[in-house]
Design brief:
The complex is a heterodimer of chains A (113) and B (115).
Chain A: E1 4-7, E2 10-14, E3 19-25, E4 32-38, E5 44-51, E6 56-59, E7 62-67, E8 72-77, E9 86-93, E10 101-103, E11 107-112
Parallel strand pairs in A: 2-11
Antiparallel strand pairs in A: 1-3, 3-8, 4-5, 4-9, 6-7, 7-8, 9-10, 9-11
Chain B: E1 5-7, E2 10-13, E3 19-24, E4 31-37, E5 43-50, E6 53-57, E7 65-68, E8 75-79, E9 88-95, E10 105-106, E11 110-114
Parallel strand pairs in B: 2-11
Antiparallel strand pairs in B: 1-3, 3-8, 4-5, 4-9, 5-6, 7-8, 9-10, 9-11
Classes of the chains: A mainly beta (113), B mainly beta (115).
Chain lengths: 113, 115
Amino acid sequence: KQEVTQIPAALSVPEGENLVLNCSFTDSAIYNLQWFRQDPGKGLTSLLLIQSSQREQTSGRLNASLDKSSGRSTLYIAASQPGDSATYLCAVLTPSNTGKLIFGQGTTLQVKP
Amino acid sequence: EPEVTQTPSHQVTQMGQEVILRCVPISNHLYFYWYRQILGQKVEFLVSFYNNEISEKSEIFDDQFSVERPDGSNFTLKIRSTKLEDSAMYFCASSEQELSTDTQYFGPGTRLTVL
């Protein structure tokens, strides 16, 4: 059974710092891995999607990597800003052809001015 | 930019009552999903829907739950007899065509409170 874990559960950094969020999954048979952002009481906003054949994806200050064989992904945020404060979720798409996403519990990031 | 919308944003109901949560997916999307998030817990998959039928459902999605696409735009989740443990944030999502490459777009959620 696929399990997704995110470490750390919470992170507090000063503005401008570069940071890395970690995601691990137990079964390497995935179609893709997605990173989402969730603001308090709000929905999920897709940040990056990495297909199983890819190693990384970049969007602006965000870079996500995927090492499928070791069951790990990282989300790198460069030059963090207070507006980056949110909960970051990773989710893997199972190879079931049904679109089922399995989520980690998230990392809550606080960027202090 | 197209977005998934959900109504109501907050629903309060008494235990045992029926509720219907409504979603309008992005118009050209073909796959539809419901997820839920109990406060402080992970986002959990409930059901996926394609070509007017359920593709997969989780163990949570028992006989009390049903989904429907009554017309070309709406996608609904019905809970027949709500329980206290159904209190959660319910998210609708949709994706375009290719499951392995297409992002799932999530709505803002409906917060369901069962008293």
